[in-house]
Amino acid sequence: MLRYLWLSLGVILLDQGVKLWLSHIWRVGQGIIIIPGLLNFRLIHNTGAAFSFLAGAGGWQRWLLIGIALLVVAVIVAILRRLKPGSTWTAISLALILGGAVGNLIDRIRLGYVVDFIGAHWGSLYWPYFNIADSAISIGAVILVLDAFRRH
Q: Does the annotation mark 134 as catalytic?
């Protein structure tokens, strides 16, 4: 099932390309409104994990999060290698999660933070900023759960 790694590579390239482009055209905090009251793009540097968890921890969290990401990558690759033929949706979901994990891992190693830029909100209710890698991880997780329900 390693043939689905092309999907991981696509996520990594798209994620890193958009982050690089936005980092060249905007400074931190700059952005644009895409859909008023719903969606905007703004360049954010996240030193923490999901939802900026541990963002103010003083720097040690970078190495912890890199270690966790490397472990996740190793586990996902091992699972992909052992999947049986016909586990297409599981392979697709894991490939999306893998691509997202590597996309954010590259940021964390190279920059010390993750570049986020997608801001979703409903009026005054704001979801934490995220990026393409986070989206791939979320979509992969949803597919994995749905596939588990479908199989059982």
A: yes
What is the rounded average pLDDT of the residues 84-104? 95
Work out the pLDDT band at 152, boundaries 50, 70, 90: confident
Q: Write down the H helix ranges in 39-87.
A: 60-82
Considering the candidates 15, 107, 116, 147, report the single residue annotated as catalytic.
Answer: 116
What is the residue range of 94's domain? Answer: 1-19+69-118+125-151
Residue 33 within any structural domain of the chain: no
Distance of CA 125 to the CA centre of its chain: 22
* Residue 114 resides in a domain: yes
Q: Which of 15, 107, 134, 147 is catalytic?
A: 134
Beta bridge partners of residue 46, listed in sequence order: 114
